[in-house]
Design brief:
Blueprint lengths: L1 H30 L9 E3 L6 E5 L5 E5 L2 H30 L10 H22 L23 H13 L36 E7 L10 E9 L1 E2 L4 E7 L2 E7 L8 E4 L3 E6 L13 H14 L5 H11 L4 E6 L4 E4 L10 H12 L5 H8 L5 H11 L16 H13 L11 H17 L7 H5 L3 H8 L20 H20 L8 H4 L1 E6 L7 H5 L2 E4 L24 E9 L7 E4 L17 H6 L3 E3 L3 H4 L5 E7 L14
Parallel strand pairs: 1-18, 3-7, 6-13
Antiparallel strand pairs: 2-3, 2-18, 4-5, 5-15, 7-8, 8-9, 9-10, 10-11, 11-12, 13-14, 15-16, 16-17
Length: about 650
């Protein structure tokens, strides 16, 4: 017996030691790729020394004597912080465009892309020397046996991929199309039924100086897209000898896409382009023009100068906005024509309500979570129900009282999509049930048409626009059903679903219980258990039509799961008193073991923006690291401590 006990004991100890050694080895391999922001490097390809000061949020402030060295350094830090994301973006872009045309780029852009590629490759060379865990944790388990050198063509393809992501989903290659679904002959065609959302959307709005507290214009920018770890956006301050450019960059592209220099701030709006105008997406020429425009924006002297550049180079489907200390300018000069959305309606309401704006007021507008969809559809849906009882499809004798309580709640609700309130959950569950009731008989196999709420279509039907109420009739039944009947039955469907899921007490229902953010780590190749372990989940306010945008998912059992939404926001003013503020949902690093992996997430949830400055003396306070890149043949001293713009 004692012998058996000893065998079991030693076996258990051996297992523990093996697990400990294995865990230690895995941790060592993973932690080896966490960048040290105080490490200096000697690299080939630089013309002179470069200082990289990372502030308290790990945003790099890059200082160099030449533009080529600045672009080299942004390539270096993109690879240092986001190597896995860089390779994933390249793989995706190559899948869409295996090769690019050889273009005669503007010299400044060509040189910038070449310097950027050299910076990325300098980091790849350091990784290949060993001791850095292949540069990114996912590379330890991915099928990337070797990493090809970065080329300027890779950056051009990624720019094309970004522009292509602004197109509606039905227009992108490889996307399932629902526009080919056959509409029954007895149904009026409603164009909104087949509308699809782009992967990314750019929004921006500007306020003239006569309506701001400082007397200088304010520019607010909002980008929506995938909410993933790491974020699609990377904040950076590029300190050129001609002046700084600060804002949001895409790993893979060296230019600031939304941001400002010392004199001008710029942002974009995107809107759908008909398929016939761009059947295969943006051409290499358009992508090159877009990059040239961004390079010139960073050197613009004023808003008029920037918009003059946009007039020649802005891609179709985009509108450019720029401000300086006195002027708000846009191209096209007349606001681009696009259908007014529910978000546009809410923005117009908030702009009309407030006569004078501060940057804090603009931030409040960006983070607004009152839904114009709820304020528009709810009166149409409930107008016949406030005093009419529905049929009792919920088990129990208290169904009528429950229904009445919930209708009373909705009657006094202002449309605020608060994560801790039950009203948003009841409203969207009702909308979803109504759409299924209306569309399932016409499109029994096109599930995505009747499971994902489409408020534009429902508004057309419920308001009987040009006879659209015919959609409420069930084609397979003899009687002709009305929209009022469908709304009533859909309410019972929704209540039944909610009672089964959460019980009969509405005070325990919350929007955030269903409307949860699921921000997953995005590896280079397939997802797995590690992705689930590294994800971030939290209840979140808003909906796909609030100014703070949070999209719905596609899972049948979790219809309101959030994996996309507002993933970068900025409020900018060329005014020392107002300043510029930015926020993205995660941290700067793409490494799960870095403290800057998700450090911005709590601030993003609470709507607390980063005050970003190009003054290095301010960035140095609480800095997370200062490193230097030195040319392989150079021995120059560090730049002075007080250097700023």
């Amino acid at each position: 017996m004692r012998r058996l006990f000893n065998i079991l004991l030693y076996g258990f100890l051996a297992i523990c030691i093996t697990v400990s050694v294995g865990s230690g080895l895995v941790y060592f391999l993973l932690s080896a790729s966490v960048p040290d922001y105080d490490e200096d490097f000697t690299v080939a390809g630089l013309g002179g020394p470069v200082d990289i000061l990372r502030d308290s949020s790990a945003v790099p402030h890059i200082s160099a004597a030449s533009a080529a060295d600045v672009y080299f350094a942004i390539g270096f830090v993109h690879a240092q912080d986001r190597l896995g994301q860089l390779l994933r973006a390249r793989r995706k872009a190559e899948a869409s465009w295996p090769s690019d045309e050889i273009l005669d780029l503007e010299p400044a852009v060509s040189d910038a892309l070449a310097s950027y590629a050299a910076g990325v490759n300098a980091w790849l060379e350091l990784v290949s020397e060993g001791g850095r865990g292949r540069g990114s944790p996912e590379l330890l388990i991915a099928d990337e046996r070797s990493i090809a050198a970065w080329t300027p063509g890779d950056s051009l393809r990624i720019a094309r991929s970004f522009l292509n992501g602004l197109r509606p989903g039905s227009a992108r290659e490889g996307m399932p199309s629902i526009s080919g679904a056959i509409i029954p002959a007895d149904r009026l065609r409603v164009p909104e039924l087949f509308a699809t959302d782009p992967e990314q959307r750019l929004d921006a709005w500007a306020i003239d100086g006569d309506r701001t507290a400082t007397g200088t214009p304010i520019l607010a920018a909002d980008i929506s897209g995938s909410l993933s770890l790491p974020s699609e956006w990377y904040l950076a301050d590029l300190q050129f000898s001609t002046g700084p450019a600060i804002g949001a960059t895409i790993p893979g592209v060296p230019f600031v896409i939304v941001g400002r220099n010392a004199r001008v701030a710029w942002a974009f709006r995107s809107f759908p382009v008909p398929d016939e105008e761009a059947p295969r997406g943006p051409s290499p020429v358009r992508a090159a023009g877009f990059l040239t425009m961004l390079e010139l924006f960073a050197r613009s002297a004023d808003a008029t100068d920037a918009i003059g550049v946009a007039a020649d180079m802005l891609p179709k489907g985009m509108e450019a906005l720029a401000i300086d200390r006195e002027t708000v300018a846009r191209w096209p000069r007349a606001e681009a024509v696009r259908a007014s959305s529910f978000r546009d309606i809410r923005l117009a309401e908030l702009e009309a309500r407030q006569s004078i704006f501060s940057t804090e007021g603009a931030i409040g507008v960006q983070r607004d979570t009152v839904s114009s969809v709820a304020r528009t559809l709810l009166p149409l849906m409930a107008k016949e129900l406030w005093f009419v009882q529905s049929r009792d499809s919920i088990e129990g004798t208290d169904a009528d009282s429950l229904r009445r309580e919930l209708l009373d709640r909705l009657a006094s609700w202002n449309g605020e999509m608060d994560r801790y309130s039950p009203e948003p959950l009841l409203f969207w569950t009702w909308v979803r049930a109504l759409q299924q009731r209306i569309l399932k008989d016409e499109f029994p196999t096109a599930e995505q048409l009747w499971t994902r709420p489409n408020p534009n279509f429902l508004y057309a039907v419920l308001s009987d626009r040009r006879g659209s109420a015919i959609w409420c009739d069930i084609r397979l039944s003899s009687p002709r059903e009305t929209c009022e009947e469908q709304v009533r039955v859909a309410l019972d469907d929704a209540l039944g679903w909610l009672v089964d899921r959460y019980g009969r007490d509405p005070s325990t229902w919350t929007w955030g219980e269903e409307h949860r953010l699921d921000m997953q780590w995005s590896p280079i190749s397939s997802r797995g258990l590690l992705t689930d372990l590294l994800s971030l989940q939290a209840p979140i306010s808003g909906d796909p039509y609030t100014l703070f945008l949070t999209s719905f998912g596609v899972e049948e059992d979790r219809p309101f799961l959030v994996s996309a939404g507002s993933n970068f926001q900025a409020v900018m003013s060329i005014s020392e008193a107002a300043g510029s503020y930015y926020i993205s949902p995660t941290g700067q690093s793409g490494h799960p073991l870095s403290r800057f992996y998700d450090n911005l997430f709590p601030s993003w949830i609470r709507g607390e923006y980063l005050a970003m400055s190009t003054d290095l003396s301010l960035a140095r306070g609480g800095a997370s690291g200062i490193s230097r890149l030195t040319p392989a043949t150079s021995d120059s001293p560090r730049m002075s401590e007080g250097q700023s713009e």
